[in-house]
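Quick one: co-fold with LXAUTJHC.
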Amino acid sequence: MDDPVLLTGAGGRVGQAILRDLADDYDWRLLDREPLPREKIPESVDDDAVYVADVTDDDAVLEAVDGVGGIIHLAGDPRPEAPWDSVLRNNIDGTHTIFAAAVEAGVEKVAFASSNHAVGAYETDDRTPDLYRPHDEYRLDGTEPPRPSNLYGVSKASGEILGRYYHDNHDLSVVCVRIGNLTRGHPPWNYERGQAMWLSYRDCAHLFDRCLQADYGYEVVYGISDNERKYYSIDRARDVLGYDPIDNSAEFEQHPKNQ
Ligand SMILES: NC(=O)C1=CN([C@@H]2O[C@H](COP(=O)(O)OP(=O)(O)OC[C@H]3O[C@@H](n4cnc5c(N)ncnc54)[C@H](O)[C@@H]3O)[C@@H](O)[C@H]2O)C=CC1
Ligand SMILES: O=C1O[C@H](COP(=O)(O)O)[C@@H](O)[C@H](O)[C@H]1O
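Sure, here it is.
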């Protein structure tokens, strides 16, 4: 994509994973409500491309999206235990502001950071813990309806539905990435669920790169590495986006201290 790309929530974990590998690949605009320390801003990004703004601020968001071709929308409250007033404002209202501004500014595509918690209630007592183990063949593939495990998950499901609306009614290309568990360097230790939905930093950057490069209408995909343990299919991300992950949590199964 030759046009600038807006990255919201740029100072957070997912934003930094993306910038670590793709800093020089796009003409980035970075938005975060917290001022970004110098070390979080790639050298290639000028000061006037960094926006300290809240995603619920219509005017600030319109200014940031003016002239951009794509948006990666990450900003929001990421806590599974976040209270309703926070997810209502930061996640639902903020995501609405982004989609509405994208349409007004003529942006081509938006990649929205959804979450495993939008579908967390599929992990029923009778399915777990087998679900998290390599022999289990149960898969969610993105065609199933949301089944949130908490109010944070409700807010992510709401973002997906907002994306559906803006695609169907305004022809915006939208991909919702149900991100698993992003951790740096290795999967979470002693946490089978986290290992089944691990997303490595480099696979994360590659996946969002594909979200900017590929052609699609409206998609819901899972954002995990190519883990041996998995209950999310990554077939749709492979087929539609050309996602080709490198990592697999099985290669890190044991904490060195337990070996
Ligand atoms: N880290 C993970 O494993 C997963 C993350 N996600 C989603 O990915 C997105 C990013 O998550 P992380 O990077 O882990 O979170 P984070 O908390 O590290 O980063 C979020 C960033 O967004 C900014 N932000 C929050 N509310 C804002 C607002 N109203 N306006 C402007 N900026 C705001 C924060 O200042 C922060 O820099 C979130 O939407 C989260 O729900 C989804 C699934 C898993
Ligand atoms: O959506 C998110 O999911 C990950 C993984 O969930 P967890 O319940 O296994 O921790 C979480 O770490 C992250 O903060 C959240 O935004």
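If it helps, The pocket of LXAUTJHC (ligand 2) is lined by residues 78, 80, 115-117, 181, 193-194 (CB under 6 Å).
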